Amino acid sequence: MSVINVGVIGASGYTGLELVKILINHPKFTLAYVANSEGETTIDKLHPSLQGVCNLEVQKADIEACASSCELVFLALPHKTAMAYVKPLIAKGVKVVDLSADYRLPQDIYEEFYTPHTDPQNLEHVVYGLPEMYREELKSAKLVANPGCFPTSALLGLLPFMDKRVENTPIIIDAKTGVSGAGKKLSDVTHFVNVNDNLFAYNPLMHRHAPEIAQKLGVDFDEVNFVPHLIPLTRGMISSIYIQVSQDFDASSVLKEFYKDEPFVRISENPVDMKNVAGTNFCDLYVKQKGNILFISSAIDNLMRGASSQAVVNANIMMGLCQKDGIPNIAYVP
Ligand SMILES: NC(=O)C1=CN([C@@H]2O[C@H](COP(=O)(O)OP(=O)(O)OC[C@H]3O[C@@H](n4cnc5c(N)ncnc54)[C@H](OP(=O)(O)O)[C@@H]3O)[C@@H](O)[C@H]2O)C=CC1
Ligand SMILES: CC(=O)N[C@@H](CCC(=O)OP(=O)(O)O)C(=O)O
Question: Where does the record place the Semialdehyde dehydrogenase NAD-binding domain (predicted)?
């Protein structure tokens, strides 16, 4: 098979770097176009960790240049900025995996939690990029909305148990994330002095990922009680999920059966942790039942399964490749 040229717009950011790292080692994709808002530099100048590994030119993002060199492009851009790129790229026949939130929700819900949508036409055919839910649809997708990191960890934990849950009872998701989830921009909240030796909740019950979780589970927003916390780590995410279930059943067997053919979900007999998934596309899951309460623990790397490695799995599926091609599977341990 001939090589497939792909691009990354937003290569100077955190998820952009993870994309570049995966793509320069990918067996079938060739990284042909790398861009940010300014250009006129090289990827190893932006990311010194790539010195001696890759010195691709970084260009000022441009639709024509991107479309003429790529079959598929990854957009690692802020919300709102992403949709301004998606519209012309799709019009030029380029396939897009968008890491932002711009195409994850129906227009009305998106506008309630984000900003007015400027590209409703492409919302009509977008596929939500959680392979365990939409693998078939992804095969023919032209535009994929890569899921949010918290929704990825919550949905993978909850999906196997939705038919065991007592209807209209609260779904409680208590999640912790590393600081790279906020991107490279500086802010008071993510300032070292505020994060170091500290732990706090933010946007409790009203975070913009709650409607994404509710929508994909097919429940009301009011049923999802989602509270994220920032922890003093660079990468990693744990969601502690609690639901009420109707009957006694073997929860571990349900989990194993649900994911028996899934290469990127691992079921653990012990509570999971962040380190064993760091740098990989794995989601590690653990479940424990006490009476009618079910506890599910879900661990991912926010930059990988929560963003960039999941984006490359989606691109593999879109381009008819093996979904595991180029996907790192050994964690940064110890
Ligand atoms: N970080 C995470 O864990 C996750 C992030 N995401 C989503 O992925 C996307 C990227 O996130 P992240 O990597 O953290 O963000 P960063 O803030 O680290 O990077 C943003 C990138 O976008 C580029 N950019 C901004 N504006 C423009 C523009 N007008 N034209 C071209 N490039 C532009 C920046 O380039 P420049 O350096 O030139 O400003 C930079 O490369 C966001 O939508 C985020 O919500 C999704 C899941 C998890
Ligand atoms: C620590 C932190 O701020 N995390 C981000 C979520 C990560 C993310 O980027 O998700 P999106 O793709 O939806 O933007 C947040 O809570 O908004």
Answer: 5-141
The string of pLDDT tens digits covering residues 135-161 is 999 999 999 999 999 999 999 999 999
Q: Which ligand 2 atom minimizes the distance to the CA of 100?
A: 12
Quick check: is 54 catalytic? no
For residue 332, report the distance from its CA to the centre of ligand 1, in Å: 23
* Domains of the chain in sequence order: 4-146+307-318 (3.40.50.720), 150-300 (3.30.360.10)
Instruction: Say how many CA atoms lie within 13 Å of 256 toward its Cβ.
Output: 6
Q: What does the DSSP assignment read for 135-195?
A: HHHHTT-SEEEPPPHHHHHHHHHHGGGTTTBPTTPPEEEEEEE-GGGG-S---TTT-HHHH
pTM for the full predicted model: 0.98
179 CA → ligand 2 middle, Å: 9
- Ligand 1: which residue has its CA nearest to atom 17? 183
Tens digits of residue pLDDT in 216-245: 999 999 999 999 999 999 999 999 999 999
